[in-house]
Amino acid sequence: MDRSAPAPVQVVAFDLDDTLFPERDYVRSGYRAVAEHLRRTQRVVQRFEDFMWDLFLAGQTAKVFDATSAHFGLNLSPAQITELVEVYRNHVPAIAAYSGVPHLLSLLRARFRLAVLSDGFLPAQRLKLEAIKLERFFDCVLFTEELGRECWKPSPAGFQAVAERLAVPAEACAYVADNPAKDFVAPNALGWRTIQYLRSSQLHAAKPAPPDGRAGAIVRTPDALLDALR
């Protein structure tokens, strides 16, 4: 027996945003919901969503609602800005899974147990998963927010919890995600197999990885992912 061979993978866990669906679609959906709320509450007919989307395309993702208030002269209070954040996080998103993902998960489910492990605010993350209609494929869904904000990646807590819930050793787990800045540090340290799935228009895929944070494999197609899991 070759003792250097990796253990067979039993569990494949996926990140959610920009791994199973395009994160930018969620952002645009959220801006539409906020714009509709502003038109209703401020009684001003403006294409607020176009302004916010232009900011996003220009690289601004922080203080977007403050900038919108200033640009349109709305003079929103801090409490009203907080209300917009809640509208964004609680809206039912108009998003869909990447093309081919349901078929890929169907193929994987025949060979592995599947999980979702994702950071992000609740209930936004739950609403995203419901919207892309993939829940039926997963044996375990864990949003690290459920464990506490301190358990967001790069904390190992979520990865440890998934392995415990599915009763498998770390070396039998694989994590598929998009963001090298935070996604692979903990699973690498725990002995998981790590795979970065690259797609066009991902928001964080080009970020630099910290020490020991690079994925063990980088794939761009379903076939390449299957090969990496073998």
Characterize the structure shown.
- Helices cover 40% and strands 12% of the residues.
- With 230 residues, it is α/β, with parallel strands linked by helices.
- The protein folds into 2 domains: 11-22 and 95-229, HAD superfamily/HAD-like (Rossmann fold, 3-Layer(aba) Sandwich), CATH 3.40.50.1000; 25-90.
- Helix 1 runs antiparallel to helix 2 (48-57), helix 1 crosses helix 4 and helix 2 (48-57) packs across helix 3.
- It is elongated, with a radius of gyration of 19 Å.
- Overall mean pLDDT score? 95
Ranges where pLDDT stays below 50 over 5 or more residues in a row are none
Count of DSSP helices?
9
CATH superfamily of the largest domain: HAD superfamily/HAD-like
Strand tally: 6
Distance between the termini: 17 Å
Largest sheet: 6 strands, parallel
Into which percent range does the helicity of residues fall? 40-55%
Write a concise keyword list for the protein shown above.
2 domains; single chain; Rossmann fold; 6 strands; 6-stranded parallel sheet; 230 residues; 12% strand; alpha/beta; 40% helix
Describe the secondary-structure layout.
Elements: E1 11-14, H1 23-42, H2 48-57, H3 64-71, H4 78-90, H5 101-109, E2 113-118, H6 124-132, E3 140-143, H7 157-166, E4 173-177, H8 185-190, E5 193-197, E6 217-219, H9 222-229
Give a quick summary of the entry.
The protein is an alpha/beta fold and 230 residues long. It has helices at residues 23-42, 48-57, 64-71, 78-90, 101-109, 124-132, 157-166, 185-190, 222-229, and strands spanning 11-14, 113-118, 140-143, 173-177, 193-197, 217-219. Strands 3-2-1-4-5-6 form a 6-stranded parallel β-sheet, sandwiched between helices.
